[in-house]
Design a protein that fits this description.
With about 100 residues, this protein is an alpha+beta fold. About 35% of the residues lie in helices and about 30% in strands.
Length: about 100
């Protein structure tokens, strides 16, 4: 059975230790709302770290977006809703890690 590759866009967040729970919740909600605002997002999954390995390096949140093409991902990157989300981050975000990969 052959499947069509899709592009995964993985975003990891580590928040400042003094980030208010309400600020983090607002970011979670804004991220979760993106598919309703940006039609090129095929799917969004997210959650918080539950690994017992102790290797998270401070990252607590993972958001995985799925796109049908690199062009769709590029549309998302410059979309006003994505930019609005980005504007919420500087006061509370300590670090971010983003990787993209094609499924095989």
């Amino acid at each position: 059975m052959e499947t069509t590759p899709v592009l995964r866009h993985v975003v990891l967040f580590a928040f400042h230790s003094n980030a208010a729970r309400a600020e983090v919740a607002a970011i979670e909600e804004a991220f979760a709302d993106l598919p309703a605002q940006i039609p090129v997002i095929s799917a969004l999954e997210w959650g918080t770290n539950v690994s017992p390995e102790g290797l998270a390096q401070g990252f607590t949140h993972c958001f995985t977006l799925t796109f049908g093409s690199a062009a769709d991902r590029d549309t998302y990157l410059v979309h006003p809703a994505h930019r609005e989300l980005g504007a919420l981050l500087p006061p509370v975000l300590e670090k971010v890690l983003v990787i993209d990969y094609w499924t095989g």
